């Protein structure tokens, strides 16, 4: 293994899912639904497969999907983007994250990452030959400390990774925070990579604010999303990146040599779904179903000794135990038959996130109840 990537070890999602399978535990670790995508998406996929489209698409993605994404942004935010020069289809949000890092970072650059962070950002930065500079945010509020942020920026800063709604913190970033980040980025001529994979999963009236909708961020942001969470199809590996033409050109330059393009029929089916979902009430239904799943799991977790953080978005609940979270999660699998993620793994210094445990609620209600009964059995 390339020595610079060695510190990242095995993905915690792979490690915990393997342990869960071995012990036949209920898997609330990996953020993958145990229910299928909406019927309309499956019907569109059937149709696309029947009609052809079995060869490579354009590397930047099928026109129908790029146009559907542009139309969706226009409808939701009155934001105008050009599907030819500003929208790129990728193999999941993951490929977009890597292409942004490899396309925009030079060796010797720095990228700022807010902690706790999704485990993919640091290795992507490292692979580009750049260095990660962490801005730690602490349980349970995960407030962004302006001083820490200001300190992190310097003339070598080239990228800032943002994730809103934020996995695993469960927070939604607000306008003043994003304005500060945007202004600092402008001062140092840095770009923002906004991973907005959970854009449709916000609760209790909290609205998702796209980073690119904030004036200070607009011209320097790569916005990333995907079908994975919105359409419960994490295995499809269809995502996209929307960015001003110069940034788009940089990530496309990498992308053509990575996957070239994701599966054509799945891109075509996604285009149909993105176009039809708003009028069918799909997004409201998705949010209502997730609010119910969250309520069920939270009710159980509140009966355990864990202290819970608030959740405004994503499909994760984060709690803190009094012990070491890695030991806690190992014990949970073996004695309770429930798998969760030891969330100190989302910090460069695990001491900072000691005791944090992440539970995914992207599961059927009966799965959540089974896990909950196991978590609370015996008082
Ligand atoms: N994004 C999901 C999570 O945070 C799954 C990631 C993965 O399995 N690679 O759980």
From TrEMBL:
InterPro entries referenced in this protein's UniProt entry, alphabetically: Aminotransferase_I/II_large, Kynurenine-oxoglutarate_AT, NHTrfase_class1_PyrdxlP-BS, PyrdxlP-dep_Trfase, PyrdxlP-dep_Trfase_major, PyrdxlP-dep_Trfase_small
Cofactor(s) this protein requires: pyridoxal 5'-phosphate
The EC number(s) this enzyme carries: 2.6.1.-
Class in the EC hierarchy, top level: transferase
Record GO terms (molecular function): transaminase activity
Gene3D superfamilies: Aspartate Aminotransferase, domain 1, Type I PLP-dependent aspartate aminotransferase-like (Major domain)
Top-level division of the source organism's lineage: Bacteria
Aminotransferase class I/classII large domain ranges (all copies): 25-354
SUPFAM superfamilies xrefs: PLP-dependent transferases (SSF53383)
Keywords: Aminotransferase, Pyridoxal phosphate, Transferase
Family note: Belongs to the class-I pyridoxal-phosphate-dependent aminotransferase family.
Cited PANTHER family: FI04487P
The protein's name in its UniProt record: Aminotransferase
